[in-house]
Amino acid sequence: MKNTRSKHSPAFKAKVALAAVREQESTAQLARRYGVHPNQIYKWKKQVIEQLASVFERDSTPGDEIGREGELLKKIGELTVERDFLSHGLERRR
Fold it and tell me: What digits encode the pLDDT tens for the residues 46-63?
């Protein structure tokens, strides 16, 4: 048995979790096939099931995005003016 921890990519985790959700094979079989501990597969499966609903949620509507864009442009303008003001103040001190 190997003693070093392995870091799995999100794509690998998703593949294993989806195989576990399908339940075509037992968790022990999946663990043997992918070389992962069964408890890890249960954990990934639980995460997929819990976060699945968030895939279909939308926090904003298309109209909100335009308003948000306007707010961000306004903030960029304010920060630009502030930066220019401060840089001119530093030039006078030199």
Answer: 999 998 888 887 765 666
